[in-house]
Specification:
- It is built from two helices and six strands.
- The protein has helices spanning about 55-65, 110-115; strands spanning about 1-10, 15-20, 25-35, 45-55, 70-85, 90-105.
- It has a five-stranded mixed beta barrel.
- A hairpin with a 2-residue loop joins strand 2 (about 15-20) and strand 3 (about 25-35).
Length: about 170
């Protein structure tokens, strides 16, 4: 079975490069936790699904340097499932995901939300740990940003578009 899918999860092992006759590939595992609704209406952790992710060529080189164990990522690619029998006689299932796109998932990071509220916006990487930055890298005091205004109830009154303005 081969399908295109998008999976969001946590990197289970640090990406590692492997040389093959077809070129270099970077491999890592990806864990996706499912949340399921319990009978009482609350939520609980369900089964963890594991994927063996492979990234080839430039994507693999980028993944090797940019990703680390524990990071939350989004991977889009082609899924292949293989069933096999282990030495103990138990039938197993392996989900292989050949990545076409890999990106970081920042949707559940509390520090990103807090940084957005902080004057001057988020800090550059390393600023929270006291790491020294090059001269001029300090963002210093920036002008206050105007707060977002709610959208008007009737958008048709805010946009005056004439037929001559239409580019097609």
């Amino acid at each position: 079975m081969t399908d295109r899918i998008t999976v969001t999860g946590n990197i289970g092992q640090t990406p590692r490069r492997k040389a093959t006759p077809k070129g270099d590939v970077v491999e890592f595992t990806l864990a996706r936790d499912q949340r399921v609704q319990a009978e009482d209406g609350g939520w609980r952790d369900g089964e963890t699904l594991w994927y063996a992710v492979s990234a080839w060529d430039r994507l693999g080189a980028s993944a090797e340097t940019a990703l680390a164990r524990g990071q939350r990522v989004i991977v889009e690619g082609r899924l292949t499932e293989r069933r096999w029998t282990g030495q103990d006689g138990v039938e197993r299932l392996t989900r292989d995901l050949r990545a076409d796109v890999i990106g970081r998932d920042i949707s559940q990071r509390a520090d990103v939300a807090a940084a957005a509220e902080r004057p001057g916006g988020p800090r550059p990487s390393g600023a929270a740990s006291g790491e020294q930055r090059p001269a001029g890298a300090d963002r210093g005091a920036q002008p206050a940003r105007e707060p977002l205004r709610p959208a008007p109830a009737d958008w048709s009154t805010t946009l005056a578009v004439e037929e001559e303005d239409t580019p097609f």
